[in-house]
Design a protein that fits this description.
About 35% of the residues lie in helices and about 15% in strands. The chain is α/β, with parallel strands linked by helices and about 550 residues long. The protein contains 18 helices and 17 strands. It has 5 domains: about 5-155, Isoleucyl-tRNA Synthetase, domain 2 (Alpha-Beta Complex); about 175-225, no CATH class; about 230-300, no CATH class; about 320-475, Isoleucyl-tRNA Synthetase, Domain 1 (Orthogonal Bundle), CATH 1.10.730.10; about 490-549, Ubiquitin-like (UB roll). The strands form 5 sheets. Strands 2-3-1-4 form a 4-stranded mixed beta sheet, with helices on both faces. A 4-stranded antiparallel beta sheet has the order 6-5-8-7, with no helix packed on it. Strands 15-14-17-16 form a 4-stranded mixed beta sheet, covered by helices on one side. The protein is extended and about 100 Å long.
């Protein structure tokens, strides 16, 4: 185990199908033979074993717990790796999710022996807290328990500390003739596997294509390492590309670690793992100050069609050229940014791109009539509708800034801008609107066009130009007016028996009696209260009132 602190939570022992005890039992147990053969057929990679269904075979044998002396059932399980550790593990379902799923399936005890603030009966707690229900070890911290239980095991001859490494072969693939050379010279005789690493060669020998040693001729290995070997540290070399004297210079330490890495989830296991490995090696060799190459990671989702990844072989590919021809590139970009958060997969929808096209046309129409880049807006009106819209504008700027810079939540940013445009009162767009109302509409559209520029650059640049501006990308980014981020008025929901029957726009501090009185005057609410007995009123200040009748 890697968690001796959980030893008092053991409720079963799990063996691999290739463990010695399993093999001894095979010749005597036909059912076990059939089970093992079935498991071998569906044997999966280590990375998939956390996802697969947990299966086990009870050997009808027991082990004795070295501390509590209780009998512990022995199982053969499909999730135990034969090539890591001893091929046997202690099952602690209270504090290991894989063990938890196994114990739940086979109705084995689930013992909690580590204190945790999380009380979740549907999953194991993996926290490293203080020990509980552990007899003589109660109250120990993780660090103290690790040391004391290790010593206890050694003194009582049932365990010892051992260091294990999960070393795997590096499968060299995706090579290029100009790739990173394998740093060794090999025997010219193909039947001889003898080789000399570059580190054992002199400078003159390194420059030669072949050398002789001990009567043997050695030539440079012409095979190359794969592209992972180069892509694992390119970020550091990019930051010091002028360095001719060494592989890296001080510029790398100035720029690294990378602030934001964006890449597909398919690289999460190999490329990103190798990158961290290379970075630590470069740190230990004195080339880099940082031991981690990337500060933040975002793995974007894929575009799906009918639930499946788009691919030519499946014939479910949508040609973007056809869509751009019909709806424009901005409509396509807007749909893809709006349809789902970037880390989730996006289900393709023809109706979705039509909706984006419709919104862009609405923005275009209203901007052509009401938007000008001339002048600067200063809010000084006491009109409640104008103040509400101006607050909405500033709230939108603040939210979009956060969505773009911190959350990468482009879909909610777009949604916020759409809400802001839809919140413009119709009378502000009418021929009889006041000059102040026209200026505020202009400010609202200026903000909308600016905030949407990274998403729909072609349309917004053209709108900016048509409104008297030059290049929008040269303009300063919108900043919210901190004085107008909160409103004294709120949208107040009025319910009858839990169903929304009306809405009020009232002061956030309005008390229950005032809200009750105003709510009962709403025609639709009065209709549902007529002839009914009000048994209870649920009032949530600043949010809702619910009449229970």
């Amino acid at each position: 185990t890697t968690r001796p602190d959980t030893i008092m939570g053991v409720s079963f022992i799990a063996l691999s199908s290739e463990h010695e005890i399993t093999k001894r039992k095979l010749s005597k147990n036909k059912d076990l033979q059939i089970w093992v053969e079935e498991m071998i057929k569906v044997k999966s990679a280590e990375k998939d074993q956390t996802l697969q269904e947990k299966k086990g075979f009870f050997l009808n044998e027991f082990a004795y717990h070295p501390v509590s002396k209780e009998k512990i059932p022995i199982w053969v399980a499909n999730f135990v790796l034969s090539d890591y550790g001893s091929g046997a593990l202690m099952g602690v379902p209270g504090h290991d999710q894989r063990d938890f799923e196994f114990a739940t399936k086979y109705s084995l005890p689930i013992l909690k022996v580590i204190s945790s603030e999380k009380e979740d009966s549907d999953q194991a707690s993996t926290d490293k807290g203080k020990l509980i229900n552990s007899g003589q070890f109660d109250g120990l911290s993780f660090e103290d328990a690790f040391t004391k239980i290790q010593k206890f095991a050694e003194q009582n001859n049932f365990g010892r500390f051992e260091e294990n490494f999960r070393l795997r072969n590096w499968g060299v693939s995706r090579q290029r003739s100009w790739g990173a050379p394998i740093p060794m010279m090999i025997s010219e005789n193909e039947d001889d596997n003898d080789a000399i690493p570059f580190s054992d060669l002199s400078d003159d020998e390194l420059k030669a294509d072949s050398i002789e040693r001990n009567g043997k001729k050695y030539v440079k290995e012409k095979d190359t390492l794969d592209t992972f070997f180069e892509s694992s540290w390119y970020y550091a070399r990019y930051a010091s590309f002028k360095s001719d004297a060494d592989i890296l210079d001080d510029e790398a330490n100035y720029w690294l670690p990378v602030d934001q890495y964006i890449g597909g989830i398919e690289h999460a296991i190999l490329h990103l793992l190798y990158s961290r490995f290379f970075c630590k090696v470069l740190n230990e060799l004195g080339y880099l100050d940082t031991r981690e190459p990337f500060t933040n990671l975002l793995c974007q989702g894929m575009v799906l069609m009918d639930g499946a990844k788009m691919s030519k072989s499946k014939g479910n590919v949508v040609n973007p050229d056809d869509l751009i021809e019909e709806y424009g590139a901005d409509s396509l970009r807007l749909f893809m940014m709006f349809a789902a958060p970037p880390e989730q997969s996006l289900e393709w929808s023809d109706s979705g791109i039509k909706g984006s096209f419709k919104f862009i046309n609405k923005l275009w129409t209203v901007s052509q009539k009401h938007f000008s880049t001339v002048g600067h807006y200063e809010h000084n009106s006491e009109d409640s509708e104008m103040e509400k819209l101006y607050i909405k504008v500033n709230q939108t700027i603040k939210k979009v800034n956060d969505d773009f810079s911190r959350r990468f939540s482009f879909n909610t940013a777009i949604s916020s801008v759409m809400e802001m445009i839809n919140s413009i009162p119709d009378k502000f767009l009418g021929d009889n609107s006041s000059e102040d109302q026209k200026k505020l509409v202009n400010e609202t559209l200026r903000v909308a066009v600016s905030l949407l520029n990274p998403i729909i650059p072609h349309v917004t640049e053209q709108l900016w130009k048509d409104a008297g501006g030059h290049f929008l990308y040269n303009e300063s980014w919108p900043v919210p007016n901190e004085k107008f981020l909160e409103s004294n008025e709120v949208d107040f929901i009025v319910q009858v028996n839990g169903k929304s029957r009306g809405k009020l726009i009232i002061d956030i501090e309005a008390d229950e009696d005032d809200v009750k009185s105003m709510s009962m005057k709403i025609e639709n609410v009065a209709k549902y209260l007529e002839g009914k007995e009000i048994k209870k009123i649920i009032f949530v200040k600043g949010k809702l009132i619910n009449f229970v009748v």
